[in-house]
Amino acid sequence: MDVWSKDVGREILAETDSTNAEALRRAAAGAAGPLWLLARRQTAARGRRGRAWSMAPGNFAATLLDRPPGPLALRSFVAALGLYDAMVAVTGRPELFALKWPNDVLLSGRKLAGILLESGPGGTLVVGVGVNLAAAPDPATLEPTALSPVSLREATGIAITPEDFLDLLAPAVAAWEAHLCAEGFAPLRAAWLARAKGLGEEVTARLPDRSHTGRFESVDETGALVLATDAGRLVLPAAEVHFAGAAHAARH
Q1: What are the boundaries of each domain within the chain?
Q2: In 3-state terms, what secondary structure has residue 101?
């Protein structure tokens, strides 16, 4: 059965610098999507805040180029929920996976996947997704506070090609996008919170110039993190979340 809608494009690239960069170039040239770009190899992949993103052979790197209506930031939740569903479809084991605000997917508490949203011209949005399907990056290449990485194959013994994984991810993301457009953010917010790592627990939210520690209470109607702190309720639209007692990348 063909899982691809006739309205959604799909291109497989042997190599590119970054699927997000390629999608932004397409947007600048007038493309509006929806279009998925999958790269078998990236030479200059990046994560949030310009960090390098390591891509081992067999790992997943793809970007969705689209021009969605409404708040673009909410598409991080669309992508995260789609990723969760795709992982469950591959493994049949929902208990293994959790979502980390704002843009990561965890496997048994370790980082499996990340999402990077970037705005393009004319209201376009690119949603980059990186998944350690085959191998995790060397922890020595990560920041000291980074969560320990893991790969799907290492943790479960399951091997899946990037192309086959995209066949699961694309319709899952499209389904959550349809829910958002038809019903608003409320059902996605509820679904995301049901899968959230650390909800109700103490976390530390780090910003470039300060940190806040409190109980992870919720995300609000804009997708911002809500913490209950000693100083009161705190709403953060952006931060790096760290869990108490979480395993961090080893340094040698």
Answers
A1: 9-194, 202-243
A2: coil
Tell me the mean pLDDT per 10 residues along the chain, length 252. 78 96 96 95 71 79 96 96 98 98 95 96 96 87 77 97 98 97 97 97 94 96 96 94 70 37
The CATH class that applies to domain 9-194 reads: alpha beta
Query: Which residue in this structure is represented by tokens 């200059």?
Result: 44
Instruction: Mark residue 152 as left, alpha or beta (left: phi above 0; alpha: psi -120 to 50; beta: remaining).
Output: alpha
Rounded CA separation 166/187 (Å): 24
What is the sign of the dihedral through the CA atoms of 249, 113, 13 and 72? negative
Gap between the Cα atoms of 68 and 83, Å rounded = 18
What backbone phi and psi angles, to 5 degrees, belong to 193? -60, -35
Exposure of 80 in the CB half-sphere (CA atoms within 13 A)? 30
Note the pTM of the prediction, 2 decimals.
Answer: 0.92
> Cα(228)–Cα(53) distance, rounded to whole angstroms?
32
Q: Would you state the structure tokens that stand for residue 36, as one six-digit string?
A: 């998925």
CATH 3.40.50.1820 fits 202-243, yes or no: no
